[in-house]
Amino acid sequence: MPTRTRHGLRPASRVAKVRAVPDASADATALVDALAVRLAPAGFDLVRALDARWYDAAVAPEYRLPRPGSGREARLAVVVGSSRAFWEPFLAWLRDDPTRLDAPDPIDRYAVAAVTAALADAAAPCAVRFSFEPPPRRVAIQRLADAAGLAARTPSMLCVHPTFGPWIALRAAVVFDVAPPDGPGAGPPRACDDCAERCAAALARARDAAPIDRGDPVASHWRLWLAVRDACPIGRQHRYPEAYLRYVYTKDLGVLRAAVADGAAPAGRGSTGACDG
Ligand code: B12
After folding, report:
1. Which of 34, 36, 154, 256 sits a CA distance of 20 to 30 A from 120?
2. What confidence category does residue 10 fall into, taking pLDDT thresholds of 50, 70 and 90?
3. Ligand 1 nearest atom to the CA of residue 153, by list position
4. Mean predicted lDDT score pLDDT of the chain
5. CA angle at residue 134 from 250 to 107, to 5 degrees?
6. How many CB atoms lie within 10 A of CB 267?
7. How far is residue 83's CA from residue 166's CA, in Å, rounded to a whole number?
8. What is the Cα–Cα distance from 151 to 191, expressed in whole angstroms?
9. 132-147 pLDDT per residue, tens
10. What torsion, rounded to 10 degrees, do the Cα atoms 272, 266, 86, 275 define?
11. Cβ(63) – ligand 1 distance below 6 Å
C-alpha cells in the first residue's frame, strides 16, 4: 500500500527522491495540494485524489470521467466535497451580492464559482463535473468518493466519512491530464463494521412515506430523510447547523434569506426538488 497524504497522494518530497525519470505523480501532488488550499477557505474542505481508472471500472460507460488534454486513460481524478464548513463561506458569498439569492440553485452556482476560480490557472489541462449535473454529464459521485477512499457507500444510501459521518456533501469531480497516484486504490474507509444498520429502519420509513419514483420525494417528508442521517452514529458532532440542514432538505429560500440576514432559521416550506447534500 503506497504512503498517502490526507489528499490521497504520496508527499512530493518522497516521490522526488525515488523517481528516476520525470514522474508526473509529483505534478499530481502539487496540483491536488494547490486545489485543496484554494478550496478550503470557500468551505470545500474535502479533497481526495485517485486514479480515474479506479472509478471508471466501477461504473457504466456513460458515467465515466472525461479525458481532458491528451485523452489518456490513466489520469488524475479528484473528488471535492464539503462538511458543515461549507455553510458560512456560502452565506458570505451570498452576502457579498444578495442578488445571488434571486437566481435558482444558489448552492450549485456557488460550487461552480468556487471550483472554477480554484482551477483558473491550473498547471495542467483539466475538466470538471459537478454533482448536480444531469446525464449525460452525471458523475456517480458517491462511487467516486468510495473509490477515492474518502467516504464509504453505506446501506443508508449516503456516503459516510470516517470523521464527518454522513454530514458531507459531494460537490465535484475534477480530472487532470497528468499521471495518477500509483499503487492500488486505498479502498473505501470502514464505516459500518460495528453498526447493525441503524439507518435501515429510518430509510424504510422515509421510502415508504415518500417513494423516490414520485415527485418531490424529499422535501415533503424531510424530517424522515433527516432521520436517516441522524441514525448514523459516526460524526454526530459534525451535524449540519439547523439552517443548513433545513435549507438542503426543504430548499426553502426563506430559510436561506434569514440565514443570510442574521443566521436565524425559521420553519421552512417548499422545494425546488434539487439535491444539494
Ligand atoms: C438523483 C439523486 C437523488 C434522488 C435519488 C433518485 C434515484 N435513486 O433514482 C433523490 C431525489 C431521491 C435523492 C434524495 C436525496 N439525496 Co441525492 N442525489 C442524487 C444525485 C444527484 C444523482 C444520483 C445518481 O444518479 N447517481 C448516478 C448512479 C449511476 O450512481 P449510483 O451510485 O448508482 O447512484 C445511486 C445513489 O446515489 C442512489 N441515491 C442517492 N440518493 C438516494 C436517495 C434514495 C432515497 C435512494 C433510494 C437512492 C438514492 O440513487 C442513485 C441512482 O440509483 C446525487 C449526486 C451524484 N451526482 O451522484 C445526489 C446525492 C447522492 N444525494 C445526496 C443527498 C444528501 C440526498 C438527500 C439527503 C437530499 C438532500 N437534499 O440533502 C436525499 C435523501 C437521501 C437519503 N438517503 O437520506 C448526496 C449524498 C451525500 C452523501 N453523504 O452521500 C448527493 C451525493 C448529492 C450531494 N450534493 O452531496 N437524491
Report:
1. 256
2. very low
3. 84
4. 85
5. 40
6. 9
7. 9
8. 8
9. 999 999 999 999 999 9
10. -20
11. yes
Query: What is the Å distance from ligand 1's center to 229 Cα?
Result: 13
Tell me whether the omega of the peptide bond preceding residue 233 falls within 30 degrees of 0, making it cis.
Answer: no
Atom of ligand 1 nearest to the CA of 161: 83
Instruction: Pick left, alpha or beta for residue 190 (phi over 0 → left; psi -120 to 50 → alpha; otherwise beta).
Output: beta
**Model confidence band, residue 97 (pLDDT cutoffs 50, 70, 90):** very high
Higher pLDDT, 199 or 194: 199
Q: Which residues pair with 173 in a beta bridge?
A: 79, 129
* Separation CA 246–CA 166 (nearest Å): 16
pTM beyond 0.70 = yes
Beta strands at 169-176 and 76-82: parallel, antiparallel or unpaired: antiparallel
Residue 212: predicted pLDDT = 65
- 88 is written with which cell numbers? 458560512
